[in-house]
Structures are given as C-alpha cells and as structure tokens.
C-alpha cells in the first residue's frame, strides 16, 4: 500500500468516526437498569460474539502453528507493508511488549523480516516475506468465510448500522474514561491509537 493510499484509508476512518460521534448524544438506555438479563447486555453480547468468531478461526490457525495475535499482525502487514512496531501496535490494538514477542516468533518462522527505514536508519520497519504473504493468501478466504457466515441473514443496511454502532460503542468507552478508577493496559493502547488518529487528522 502506498503512502497516499494509507492516508486515504485513515481519512476514511476519521470521517466514519465523525459521523458516529454526531449520534453519540443519543441515549437509548434508561438511567437505571430495569433487569439483569444478559441477553439485553451490550457488553455480554459483544464479548460472546467476539469469542465465538475467534474460536472458529483459531481452529484453522492451529495447523499453521500461529495464533490470533500472529494472524492479526500478518494481516495488518499484508494490508499495509513496511510498518514500524509502533504502527502495528496502533493498527492491531496490541501492547508493545506482547507485540514484540509475537513479531519475534513470526520472524523465526520466516514470515516477517526487519529492515531499516531509508530516511532514518534507527527506525526499523517490518514487512512480510514471501512465505508470510503466502500464508495470508491461504488463510484470508477462510477468515472471510467466517465473517460472511457471522452476518448471514443481515441486510446491507443493518450491517452498516451495526458497524457504525460498534465504532460508536468503542469511541464512547475510550474517549470518556475519566471515571475509570484505573486505566488498564488495553485502554492505554486504545487511547494511544486515538492520539495517533488525531495527529493524522488533516487540518481544516
């Protein structure tokens, strides 16, 4: 992916976030929970769906001896090659310490290589090897099949609303964490991604 394409992708993501924020003032839930039925809990339903999607794809990854974290790194590099470790942390929402270990594992398997940036030799960029590109090409159809399976029976309009809703849920929890008693590592990573998006946002 070229620099211009990467910039365009980020601008589109920012545009979607602005649209989502315009609806953030609405509040569909009452001030007090009427019951404790998990089937009406946003957090529970999101977590349940995410866990089963991960479980379905993890079974396919086992034969390749990689886990979901490794797959996300490979997929992120296939989408946009030559990223720094910090770039990958932002794109995948991963903690740098865990990410560094995963990159080391992928490097030892011959899927990822390190290289110096042409503009700054201190800046190390990561890219896929031919083997890394091949494994992404092999697994991508299965990942897409599972994703399509997950939205079977959902209309295009419903899917668009769902995606916008998920982005809004994420934004609400990351951008309004002042009442959090402790800012944990995952929230720290999410806030770092937010700062990066704000930095990349075009002025005017």
What class do helices, strands and sheet pairing give? mainly alpha
Secondary structure: helix percent: 55-70%
Number of domains: 1
The multimeric state of the shown protein is single chain
Query: Helix-strand pattern, N to C?
Result: HHHHHEEHHH
- Give unreliable regions as ranges: none
Number of strands: 2
CATH superfamily descriptor: Winged helix-like DNA-binding domain superfamily/Winged helix DNA-binding domain
Quick summary:
By secondary structure, the chain is mainly α.
What does it look like?
With 204 residues, the protein is mainly α. It has one domain (12-22, 38-200): Orthogonal Bundle (Arc Repressor Mutant, subunit A). Helices cover 64% and strands 5% of the residues. It contains 8 helices and 2 strands, in the order H-H-H-H-H-E-E-H-H-H. It has helices at residues 3-22, 42-62, 68-79, 85-92, 96-108, 130-150, 156-175, 185-200, and strands at residues 112-116, 124-128. The chain is globular and about 55 Å long. The mean pLDDT is 82.
